[in-house]
From TrEMBL:
InterPro entries: GH, GH_1_N_CS, Glyco_hydro_1, Glyco_hydro_1_AS. It holds the Pfam family Glyco_hydro_1. The keyword Oxidoreductase does not apply. Keywords: Glycosidase, Hydrolase. NCBIfam families: PRK09593.1, PRK09852.1. This is 6-phospho-beta-glucosidase. It comes from Oceanobacillus neutriphilus. The lineage of its organism: Bacteria, Bacillati, Bacillota, Bacilli, Bacillales. It comes from the Bacteria. PANTHER family: 6-PHOSPHO-BETA-GLUCOSIDASE, GLYCOSYL HYDROLASE. The active site is at E372. Belongs to the glycosyl hydrolase 1 family. SUPFAM superfamilies: (Trans)glycosidases.
Length: 472
């Protein structure tokens, strides 16, 4: 088995980190529009602060981001120059329904995405669209509590219906939710959830997750009815959990972390709540409110494929271990002594991607696509105007080598890879612009000229795509 000839090479972005134009052409305020960079960002995205006023003295990175809203033609032309076969992007919910509860959608928002998809089609780039990527209308957060409330399903399905019908000639690959498991780790960023004193946070998070899972099944049903060619995928933040040592206690803790990570995809792919989760709910006193038809919906409308992000593996130690902790994509993890780390402390583990690919494929036996993988780093422009990001090239090259091994030697069924990110964007976790991921540099720091510059990795990735992964 080799990399398939129609492999979907490309890149990925999200609306809230990339688009800007937050108050233009009728767009409403989204949940991430009220999350500033700085000291309170972590508490807000974890749901611990619920003051949604926009402070004049704070910087809100989503408001301008890198201005894709006014540069989409230029950017998609650059993606085409790299040879993209696919572009994974997301919809800003409030660009379509400004408050989330309107009877009719905002035509200006619909037209924007139609123009984006037409540009993609012009270059034979396949859009892979995330419907909700860390993006819910702030009005629905304040009015009904976002995904805490089952009413949210109806508002979400109204959005889905408009998207599926309007863009049925442009889009076949849909992801209902981005990194659906992040609701457990960054509940406001992931799902618009906030908590107050005395709340049973575990109960709230898993109840909201249940609403999202039902919404995913109903969206899958609707997508197939509107266009039988539609393909719906789950999307989760992946990364195998290694035991810190061969101490059985560490092995057991790592297994439990893996179960927590796979919980959502187990339901979306297998169509039912796994026994380990039901037992855990009972131990924790979590009592989910379910409607009579919920089990049948989950069973009848599973996803067609599995997509995931991979930045690093995790290393898990038991409570009585002496392991030191480090950061990794909002996950606390023990420091793995065998791995180097990025400038932001995230472990770098290409072999871990091969391990993860094997684990996911063995578990679900469904086609897979990696929709996020990349390195956040500080990039500088030298005197010649060049951006030499050899560190990014090395990171991506090593991870693509691991992908090739998983396909060619292990037999996993992988049909695409969209690197994070296609273009520089604002960091989701830190809200920083200096933590750059893209093949294309964007001046969004000081002058905010939003000038686009090709990094060395731009030319390298072009060769990777041209050679279908042979030239790394």
């Amino acid at each position: 088995m080799t990399i398939r000839k129609d492999f979907l090479w490309g890149g990925a972005t999200s609306a809230n980190q990339y688009e800007g134009g937050y108050n233009e052409d009728g767009r409403g305020i989204s949940s991430m529009d009220v999350v500033p960079s700085g000291k309170n960002r972590s508490d807000i995205i974890r749901g611990n602060i619920s003051d949604f006023s926009i402070g004049e003295d704070l910087y809100y990175p989503t408001h301008k981001a890198v201005d894709f809203y006014h540069h989409y033609e230029e950017d998609i032309a650059l993606f085409a120059e790299m040879g993209f076969k696919a572009y994974r992007l997301s919809i800003s919910w409030t660009r379509i329904f400004p408050n989330g509860d309107e009877e009719t959608p905002n035509e200006a928002g619909l037209k924007f995405y139609e123009n984006v998809f037409k540009e993609c089609k012009k270059y034979n780039i396949q859009p892979i669209v995330t419907i909700s990527h860390f993006d819910v209308p702030l009005y629905l957060v304040e009015k009904i509590g976002s995904w805490k409330n089952r009413e949210m399903i109806d508002y979400y399905l109204k959005l889905c219906k408009v998207l599926f019908e309007r863009y049925k000639d442009y889009v076949e690959y849909w992801l209902p939710f981005n990194e659906i498991n992040m609701i457990l780790h960054a509940p406001f960023m992931a799902a618009g959830l906030t908590f107050k004193g005395g709340d049973n946070e575990e109960q709230i998070k898993y109840q909201a997750a249940h609403h999202e899972l039902i919404a995913s099944s109903l969206a899958t049903k609707m997508a197939k009815e509107i266009n039988p060619d539609n393909k719906i995928g789950s999307m989760f933040a992946a990364g195998s959990a290694y035991p810190y040592s061969c101490n059985p206690k560490d092995v057991w803790e790592a297994l439990k972390v893996d179960q927590e990570n796979y919980f959502f995809v187990d339901i979306q792919s297998r169509g039912k709540y796994p026994n380990y989760a039901l037992k855990e709910f009972k131990r924790k006193g979590i009592d989910l409110v379910m409607h009579d038809e919920d089990k049948q919906l989950l069973s009848e409308y599973p996803v067609d494929f599995i997509s995931f992000s991979y930045y690093n593996s995790r290393c898990i130690a038991s409570k009585d271990s002496d392991a030191k902790l480090t950061d990794g994509n909002l996950f606390a993890t023990a420091k793995n002594p065998y791995l180097e780390a990025s400038e932001w402390g995230w472990p770098i583990d290409p072999l871990g991607l091969r391990i993860t690919l094997n684990e996911v494929y063995d578990r679900y036996q469904k086609p897979m696509i990696i929709v996020e993988n990349g390195l956040g780093a500080i990039d500088t422009i030298n005197e010649d105007g060049q951006i030499k990001d050899d560190y990014r090239i090395q990171y991506l090259s090593d991870h693509i080598k691991a992908i090739k091994s998983a396909i060619e030697e292990d037999g996993v069924d992988l049909f695409g890879y969209t690197a994070w990110a296609a273009c520089d964007i604002v960091s989701a976790s830190s809200g920083e612009m200096k933590k750059r991921y893209g093949f294309i540099y964007v001046d969004a720091d000081d002058k905010e000229s939003f000038t686009r510059l090709k990094k060395d990795s731009f030319y390298w990735y072009k060769k990777v795509i041209q050679s279908n992964g042979d030239i790394l």
